[in-house]
Structure formats: C-alpha cells, structure tokens
Design goal:
The protein is α+β, with helices and mostly antiparallel strands. The strands form six sheets. Strands 11-12-16-17-15-14-13 form a seven-stranded antiparallel β-sheet, covered by helices on one side. A five-stranded antiparallel β-sheet has the order 1-2-3-5-4. A three-stranded antiparallel β-sheet has the order 6-8-9. It contains 15 helices and 22 strands. 39% of the residues lie in helices and 24% in strands. The mean pLDDT is 89. The protein has four domains: 5-103, Phosphorylase Kinase, domain 1; 109-236, Transferase(Phosphotransferase) domain 1 (Transferase(Phosphotransferase), domain 1, Orthogonal Bundle); 242-366, Phosphorylase Kinase, domain 1; 371-481, Orthogonal Bundle (Transferase(Phosphotransferase), domain 1). It has helices at residues 5-10, 62-78, 111-116, 120-139, 175-186, 191-208, 217-236, 272-276, 313-319, 325-338, 373-379, 383-402, 437-453, 459-472, 477-481; strands at residues 28-36, 40-47, 50-58, 86-92, 97-103, 109-110, 142-144, 152-155, 158-161, 167-169, 247-252, 255-260, 284-287, 291-298, 301-308, 346-354, 357-366, 371-372, 405-406, 415-417, 423-425, 432-433. A hairpin with a 3-residue loop joins β1 (28-36) and β2.
C-alpha cells in the first residue's frame, strides 16, 4: 500500500536513483525506512560496496539538525556507549540537503520489535538490560529525549543507542531530570510486566548508578503513570491528527483526511462518493441508523470502513460542533497501539467539513481475520485453547485497568479472538482514558459487568472467567465492586 521509494524521495526533491555526497562514492539502492515530512529521511542504501544507513536532512535547518545528530553520536562515543559509527558526513548541494552515513548494524532488531515478539522471560531480561543502559547514559550526563524502544538496536547480547539527534549532554545532570528520563523508559514497557517487576528494575538502575533518593515504589508508579499518560495524550489526541512520521494529512475540498503513512497511495479513496461506493449490498457487515460498516478491498489492503451517518438535520447540527466518533476511534486505536494493546490497525480518518463544521465521517481499519468472542467459544472445543483465550481476555482487562482506560461497550461482538487465543478490541468510540482513581474504578467496573453479561447463559464459562480474574488481578477491589467476587 505504501508509496514506492521513488515517490517518497521525490517528495523531498530527490528525483534520481542515486545520491552522491561531496568527493566520494554514490549512495545507491536507496530504500526509505522513515520520513519526517519536510525535515529528514532515513534510508537503507549501498555505499562503497557495503550496506549502510543514510540520514538525509532537508530544509532551512538541515545543517542544524545534521550537526545535532553528529554531536549526539559523538557524546555516546565519548561515553564509550555502543552506537553505529559515522562513515561519512557531507553537504548535498544539488539537493540543498545534508547527509550522514552510518554503518549498518547487522544482524540486529530494534528493541520494540524484540519486545513485541518475546515471551515474558525475555521481556523481563530485556527490560533490565535497557534500564542498566539508561543508567550508564545518566552516569555520562546523557539524556535520550526521544525515549522509545525503537531507538535501541539489539545485536546478540549488545545494545546500541541510535538517533543522536535525541541525545542531550549535561555537565551536571540534575537528578530530577535523570529520574524523569528513567520513568519515561519504564512507561514504554508492558504495564503487566512492569507491575510485577518494578522493584527489581529499580534495583538494576541503582546498581548501575547510585539512586540517591529514597526508593519509594508507589511514588515511582505514580510518576510512570504521569509519563505514560502525557506521552499517549500527546500522540493519540494531537500528533496523529497532523502531518507526522506515522500519518499523512491531505487537504481535500470540504474534508479532513488523515492516512497511515504505511498505507498512502495516490489512488486512496478520500471523497464521499469514492468511500460510499464500497457500501454495496454484498459488502455491508452492519447497517445501523448511526453507523454503517462495510468490508472493502483498497488496493492490496483488506479493510473495514465504518461510516458514521447523520440521521437528520438536528442530529447533524448538534454533531457538527463535537468531535466525530470516527476521530475518537482513530485516536483511541493509535492510543492502544502505542500502549501495546491489540486492536485493528488504524488506516484512515476522513471527515466532511464545511465552514469548520463536521459532518459525515469515516474510520478505516485493516481487516482482522478473527471471530467474535462469543462465536469463538461456541465453535472452539479444545480445552487448552479455550483456557488460553480466557486468560488472554482477563489479562487484557487488567492491562486496561492499570492503564486507566475503560472501553465503554464490552459486548462480545466488540472483542475478537485470534487463532492463538489473543483478544483484540474493536469499536473504540466510547473508550476513555481517566485521570482519577475513582473514575478508573467506575469505568472498569462497568466494563467488567457488561463483559460478564455475555456469559450469563453459560455458567461454566462465566465461572472460568471469575476464577482467572481472581488469579490475574493483584488488586481485587474492582472485582469486588463489580460483585463477581464475594
């Protein structure tokens, strides 16, 4: 679905298949890895017969950004921390740009991919390694301001820090700043893993660098919650509604269009007639008054389009002043993805707008080949798979509770079960991220009660869920409030 390399590079004014830095060999076989619109592009490439990564910096501040990246790498090297070696830095006069060429660390995976594909044991080990590495950063007076797991490369037993642009050096690093940076890292770990291993992770940090403050786990948890909520709010409620690395925003007459950068094509449907053409009798999955859902084949992508309808003049009038349910779903899908919770991948948000007022809206996701939870349990007889599905569902609930999220409509048709038993949430337009403990408890109890109603007619399944809820939840307060435990 994504635009080809030539189109992506052309958007930066690079219209040739090769780039030649000053007085050196050409960069060839350019393959775009990541783009920040109007600022930089990271490419895999070949240079002097070897695989490399090339960072291309564009725009008026290209020299400033390139220099900041170089200084960050030099700071890491000076501290004897692993980071890819700079092979070449050069101006590109023909493109009014700068390029920095790095060695390719091969084989390697970024820590986010390793984490997502790892079992619990490997995750805990990786968490300790990353905490110890960040402690070494802090001992050297370094802060990674763009604290994401993607900015660490894993090669066997070694971890490389990448993205020098995000490295800042302090002669005397303030403790408060160092601890805040640690909390940012900890907030990127799966909340269920973190809940069981936080004390040990803090001890790993303290063993690599004196903690110098009373080690209060509850206070640390509170700080991690603040860091996590700040990051998710900035991303899911703001960033994905504007042009950024992950989202392309197009200006279309009488419409707002946001498309996942991985799914952008020149012929992606963006107008009401193009989108409504998919709502044929054979494609419609659900036909309600306020929303209609249809399956669609968009290029090579199997997708689901949810159209939020306007029932009449007054419904349209009052809705025009509020956020559309499509935009709420779009933001919440990105929120869940950022937090590592399974949901259908968000593809696009399209809203009709006239004079700043919102009208009909569309939310597009990738199609997920999975059964509704009630259908799954009716069709699945294997005891092991059924038990795994129950455990995965309850763990998902507990993650939502720890993350202070409530879904708002936990009926079985809004939970898909994949082949391995993992639960996946859909229909996110009622989801909320809460601030207070009271609001979290209230929303979570409502979710549990709605969920357990699905199994009232199946006592054995109802009791299985109750049993696993009791085992998984370290805090039985919400279960007692929901009256599923005595």
């Amino acid at each position: 679905m994504q635009k080809d390399n030539a189109s992506l590079l052309a958007s930066f004014g690079v219209n040739t298949p090769t780039i030649t830095p000053d007085n050196t060999s050409a960069l060839t076989s350019l393959e775009v890895v990541r783009c920040v619109p109007n600022r930089r592009c990271v490419c895999k490439a070949m240079w002097q017969g070897k695989h490399v990564y090339a960072k291309l910096f564009f725009g008026e501040k290209a020299a400033q950004y390139a220099l900041r990246d170089l200084r960050g790498v030099e700071a890491l090297q000076h501290a004897k921390l692993l980071t890819p070696t700079i092979l070449k830095q050069s101006k590109l006069p023909q493109h009014q740009a700068y390029v920095v060429i790095f060695e390719a660390i091969s084989p390697s995976e970024n820590a986010e991919d390793v984490w997502n594909n790892a079992n619990e044991f490997v995750r805990v080990e990786l968490a300790h390694q990353l905490v110890e590495l960040v402690a070494k950063h802090h001992e050297a007076g370094l802060i990674q301001i763009d604290m994401y797991l993607k900015n660490f490369l894993i090669q066997y037993d070694s971890i490389y820090t990448i993205d020098g642009d995000g490295i800042r050096h302090f002669e005397n690093l303030p403790l408060k700043k160092a601890h805040a940076n640690l909390f940012q890292l900890l907030s990127k770990f799966d909340v269920l893993t973190l809940d069981g291993h936080l004390s040990a992770l803090l001890e790993s940090y303290a063993s690599a660098r004196p903690w110098q403050l009373p080690l209060n786990v509850n206070a640390v948890k509170s700080n991690i919650d603040v860091a996590r909520q700040k990051a998710t709010t900035a991303y899911a409620d703001k960033k994905v509604f504007r042009q950024c690395t992950d989202v392309v925003v197009n200006k279309v007459k009488h419409a707002f269009v946001a498309i996942s950068a991985q799914c952008v094509t020149d012929d992606f449907p963006q107008t009401v007639p193009e989108l409504d053409a998919y709502f044929t009798l054979g494609n419609i999955i659900k036909n309600g008054n306020t929303c209609t859902v249809a399956s669609a084949r968009i290029g090579s992508l199997d997708a689901v389009i949810k159209r939020y309808n306007i029932k009449g003049f007054w419904h349209g009038f009052w809705r025009s002043f509020r956020r559309t349910r499509a935009s709420i779903s779009w933001g919440n899908a990105h929120r869940l993805q950022l937090l590592g919770l399974p949901t259908a991948k968000p593809v696009a948000l399209i809203e009709t707008r006239r004079f700043g007022l919102r009208g009909k809206a569309y939310f597009i996701t990738e199609y997920v080949d999975a059964l509704d939870m009630d259908v799954f349990f009716k069709q699945t007889s294997g005891k092991a798979l059924r038990a795994e599905a129950v455990k995965q569902a309850v763990q998902l609930f507990y993650r939502l509770y720890l993350l202070k999220l409530s879904h708002g409509d936990m009926k079985a048709t809004n939970i898909k079960v994949q082949a391995d038993g993992q639960s996946l949430l859909i229909d996110l337009d009622s989801m909320q991220q809460h601030q207070s403990a009271a609001a979290v408890q209230k929303g979570h109890v409502r979710d549990i009660n709605r969920f357990m109603q699905n199994w009232k007619e199946t006592p054995s399944l109802y009791n299985a869920f109750v049993k696993v809820f009791k085992v998984v939840y370290a805090d039985h307060g919400p279960l007692q409030a929901a009256q599923i435990l005595e």
